[in-house]
Amino acid sequence: MKYTIKDIALLANVGKSTVSRVLNGDPNVSEETRQRIQEIIHKVGFEPNRIARAMRGATDPVVGVIVTRLNSVAESQTLSAILHELYQKGITPLIVESQFQPELVLKHFQLFKQRQVDGIILFGFSQLNLDILKSWKGSLVTIARSYPEISSVVYDDEKAVEALMFKLYMQGHREIAYLGVKDSDETTGKLRNQSYLNFCQKYELSPNLIKVELGAESGYQNVGFLFEKPISALLCASSSLAVGALKYMQEIGQIRPLACIGKNEMLQFVVPKLMSLDFGYPQAGKGAVALLLQQLDGNKNIEQIRVTFGQL
């Protein structure tokens, strides 16, 4: 159980303000009351909310942020929104990378514990299991992947693919190829791949799908396999894959209408007719900060925010 100042006050039979004064070293508290409160704090393992104390000038609040890759176009958009929200609240971010390695997440947890961060916002990934996340005893919010008993912000992967496919279908395309990500990636990969296949089955289209590693180079190296079949349009699971696909199509002189999930300013500049959708990355960042601040304010409810994507 994560205790709050209110819980400590109830156990000690005093007001919240008295507990706060003890935490802040206020001399205007009787020694008997101080000792009783400190004994309860020690017994239950209470860790004071540094953000709440910072509001009173006691210390600077810090929030740890664990991204998978700092060079990810998608995550950088979400991270930018997170930083904007944290700075607005006077909170200092401590940013690290997981590089899709669970063992690195554990090391970052140790670092954050040493630095006494107030809470963590973590970009989830398939290899990261619930046991590792539950080893962190403080406030935690995940992005992109949901876990039982942990508040999270998730994207609408399946409907995003469906929306793009329907747009291409309504434009008359019937040979829509899909450059996807390997199923080991639960969201960008498995969920989006299945959505593509479901659409093909529903509208009686012949699937033309390949699953690759996430990244422009992987897209460039593998998209050629899709061109072994007729293609009227190409849909990519991410904007980075679309960058690689575009390079390949330019080199072989077979440009096809291109669509992808997520906005990429440079790609849109190069491909004026690029079909893409705003996947809600900035909204995810704002939502994650809001959920974390609720936890730090004593709200113990587990919540999930599903971000809706923008109009095509």
From TrEMBL:
Q: CDD domains per the record?
A: HTH_LacI, PBP1_TreR-like
In terms of superkingdom, the source organism counts as Bacteria
A molecular function GO annotation: DNA-binding transcription factor activity
Residue ranges of the HTH lacI-type domain? 3-57
Under the heading PROSITE patterns, the entry gives: HTH_LACI_1, HTH_LACI_2
Q: Which SMART domains match?
A: HTH_LACI
Question: What is the name listed in the Swiss-Prot or TrEMBL entry for this protein?
Answer: HTH-type transcriptional regulator TreR
- Lineage, highest ranks first: Bacteria, Pseudomonadati, Pseudomonadota, Gammaproteobacteria, Pasteurellales
**One matching Pfam family, short form?**
LacI
Which of UniProt's keywords are assigned here? DNA-binding, Transcription, Transcription regulation
Q: Does the keyword DNA-binding apply?
A: yes
**InterPro entries linked to this entry:** HTH_LacI (IPR000843), LacI/GalR-like_sensor (IPR046335), Lambda_DNA-bd_dom_sf (IPR010982), Peripla_BP_I (IPR028082)
